[in-house]
Amino acid sequence: GMPSLSLFRLSLYLRYVKALECKGVESVSSKELSHRFSISSALVRKDLGFLGSLGKRGVGYDIAVLKNGLISALGIDKHWNVALVGAGRLGTALVRYTRRAEGPFRIAAILDKYPQRMTKARDLDMEVLHIDSLPEAVQERDIKIGIISVPGSAAQDVADKLVAAGVGAILNFAPAYIEAPDGIFVHNVDFIVYLENLAHHINTNSDI
Amino acid sequence: GMPSLSLFRLSLYLRYVKALECKGVESVSSKELSHRFSISSALVRKDLGFLGSLGKRGVGYDIAVLKNGLISALGIDKHWNVALVGAGRLGTALVRYTRRAEGPFRIAAILDKYPQRMTKARDLDMEVLHIDSLPEAVQERDIKIGIISVPGSAAQDVADKLVAAGVGAILNFAPAYIEAPDGIFVHNVDFIVYLENLAHHINTNSDI
Ligand SMILES: NC(=O)c1ccc[n+]([C@@H]2O[C@H](COP(=O)([O-])OP(=O)(O)OC[C@H]3O[C@@H](n4cnc5c(N)ncnc54)[C@H](O)[C@@H]3O)[C@@H](O)[C@H]2O)c1
Ligand SMILES: NC(=O)c1ccc[n+]([C@@H]2O[C@H](COP(=O)([O-])OP(=O)(O)OC[C@H]3O[C@@H](n4cnc5c(N)ncnc54)[C@H](O)[C@@H]3O)[C@@H](O)[C@H]2O)c1
User: What is the predicted pLDDT for the residue at A119?
Assistant: First the structure.
């Protein structure tokens, strides 16, 4: 398969290409992509080479063709049902954001330890389920990915429940390293890493 | 300076090394780091080579020495004051998270278009300022980085205000590509990219 970092960059290209499409732009060059993401044009062309030969020398890539090629290469042309556990401040923001994004990811279930409290307080127009109904929600709604947005102390317990219920991957926002069996993919998010990155660039005044 | 992706990995190593330190672990090998992050040991040693020769063949790296080396290489051994604009759901979660992280980043100012509404609703124990007082807040509190967590339609306007007030870098969570002058570093966050990454791994059943 494709190397993991190349894959990550494809997601970034896709987001940018969609933004260009919204503005009515019809083509983009590898030079422009390399400039936007501060990487070499050669690397961009190598990444896009995984999509098959899409570009034209001197002309660049047709936006619609590139978008579909990226969606297909990323394997996101199908729908994905997602369960979010922890309907607090962050969780609610993530649910609203995912809905507006109009991508293939659908928050199919929102679960919490205190469901009634959460729905009122957070004006979610979707029912918040009790965490105990996670197994049946995952089965009935064909949920493949779980998002964890509970406090750090509850994270491993929630991860165990998600794995037991049958998800294939977990996106963890809680400040804790969670363990999961081989074959269950886990990504831990920590936005402070981006602040560190920015701080370093200010210090060294170097290009991102 | 160091390549940008190498720098990013250093942040990831640091977070992991801190977690090991909390558990009382005293040393770590490049093999363990390579396994944790699914990259080659050679790449880990190349990254850590930027810190000077810290490791011992066969023994690995002393945790405390490695941590300080990483902090120093990342340039985050000094304090950084940050302004967060948009004290909504996401913004409030980010403020609380940053405080608990006990890192060098201090949320020195929280600003919003509707400050009174926000402080009550979001139980922030810090005053929320009106966005109009951004310039003086940045000057008086020596703020170097701005975080944007307002709706997409307001993002560019807020970015312009942050730049005018004198920040050196912007971390943008709003779903909009913001423009900033050369020399002002901008990072756009989109957590959906991680969902796409996980979806792809489920599809191809490949290692992250
Ligand atoms: N990774 C990042 O960059 C980042 C950024 C911001 C916040 N966070 C983290 O995200 C998490 C949520 O932050 P928040 O500000 O929304 O907190 P919050 O307190 O507003 O929300 C937490 C929610 O989890 C629920 N909960 C607690 N234990 C549970 C359990 N065992 N099962 C199910 N639900 C449970 C609570 O009822 C609550 O609704 C925290 O761990 C925080 O540190 C991470
Ligand atoms: N990047 C990601 O992965 C991600 C994830 C979740 C949410 N988001 C985005 O983060 C933003 C905030 O989300 P939320 O759920 O917290 O929304 P929210 O409505 O709860 O909060 C937005 C806040 O911004 C304030 N505001 C609006 N216009 C302003 C202006 N011009 N100046 C100053 N303050 C202003 C509002 O008063 C409000 O307090 C949205 O743009 C959302 O799409 C991004």
Answer: 61
